[in-house]
Write a structure and sequence with these properties.
Keywords: Membrane, Transmembrane, Transmembrane helix. One of its GO terms (cellular component) is plasma membrane. This is NADH-quinone oxidoreductase subunit H. The structure is a single chain. By secondary structure, this protein is mostly helical. The chain has one domain. It is 73% helix and 0% strand. The chain has twelve helices and no strands. The protein is globular, with a radius of gyration of 20 Å.
């Protein structure tokens, strides 16, 4: 039975990557970014660190092993959750344009669909922690739910601010088309250089660490406290799918930030180089430097932080768009 499920897991991750080559390219780039992150953090902490390709080795090693299911855990749900999470992020990356390189079909989804898809990994992790039957998983479930409730509000405010800024400028109240947002900035300048949009930019930057589980907001999966929480009982290809889901979500969040605030006007190879450079800078600023320099917050501290500052920045950004946009 486990061998059959392992085969299904492998097909679940390979199918979207084969059918959608851009997702495969993004996954490779995301794993390379993780390798760079581990090297940078090691250097900042005066360690040697792993090789650049270590994330690839980890995925391949996990794929070669067997997924074990804890006694008493619902087998189908336990093994289906990582497949759902990974496939949702493959679909999400298909909706985000890479300006000058890839333009998605707007009929398949927009900013609203992307917002829903971005909540899937957190929900999957919560269900995984619950399905595992582990005490550590249950604690991770509780922490993930609290953290998601804290950062989803500011994220929604930022998305609405960007959508309204574009919509009002085009004669509508609001637009959720990512390509409309890109085209408006190409004609009128990036939102990153618009002072009225700076509160929304700062709010989005502050949301990234919690959305991606980056210190000091890696509270649900704290290895030293709850042994990776929801992932404690996962192994083999199932755990590899969670790693792939995390990598793809990182790329979705980074690419969405670039699309909303600094898409650029380049095309072809220059556009691709620009996208890679922007992702690298944003990744290093919001992950590597934080991971190397700060400790982990308690869940109550993280919850209060997001209900204070990012929420306030999101509200201010939305008000500025409404009255000044």
């Amino acid at each position: 039975m486990l061998e059959v499920m392992n085969t299904l897991i492998l097909k679940a991750v390979l199918a979207p990557l084969v059918l959608f080559p851009v997702a495969a390219a993004v996954l490779v780039f995301g794993l390379l970014l993780k390798g760079v992150d581990r090297i940078v953090v090691a250097r900042l902490q005066r360690r040697v660190g792993p090789p650049l390709l270590q994330p690839f080795f980890d995925i391949l090693k996990l794929m070669s092993k067997q997924s074990m299911v804890p006694i008493g855990a619902p087998r189908t749900l336990f093994l289906a959750l990582p497949m759902i999470g990974a496939c949702s992020m493959c679909l999400a990356i298909a909706l985000v344009p890479i300006v000058g390189v890839y333009e998605p079909n707007g009929q398949f989804g927009d900013l609203i669909v992307l917002l829903y898809l971005l909540t899937v990994p957190a929900i999957v992790l919560m269900l995984a922690g619950s399905a595992s039957g582990s005490t550590f998983g249950a604690i991770g479930f509780s922490r993930e739910m609290s953290l998601m409730l804290a950062y989803e509000g500011p994220l929604l405010l930022v998305l609405i601010s960007v959508a309204m800024k574009t919509g009002l400028a085009q004669g509508d109240l609001i637009t959720f088309s990512l390509m409309d947002i890109v085209h408006y900035q190409q004609d009128n300048g990036s939102f990153l250089f618009d002072p009225w949009m700076w509160p929304a930019v700062l709010a989005y930057l502050s949301i990234i660490p919690a959305n991606l589980g980056i210190p000091p907001f890696d509270i649900p999966e704290a290895e030293s406290e709850v042994l990776e929480g929801p992932l404690c009982e996962y192994s083999g290809p199932a755990l590899a799918l969670f790693k792939i889901m995390s990598t793809m979500k990182t790329m979705v969040v980074l690419a969405l930030g670039i699309v909303m605030f600094i898409p650029g006007n380049a095309t072809g190879m220059m556009a691709l180089i620009g996208f890679v450079f922007k992702c690298l800078i944003l990744f290093l600023l919001t992950k590597s430097l934080l991971r190397a320099s700060v400790g982990r917050m308690r869940i109550d501290q993280a919850f209060l932080f997001y209900f204070k500052w990012p929420e306030l920045l999101g509200i201010v950004g939305l008000l500025l768009v409404v009255f000044k946009g």
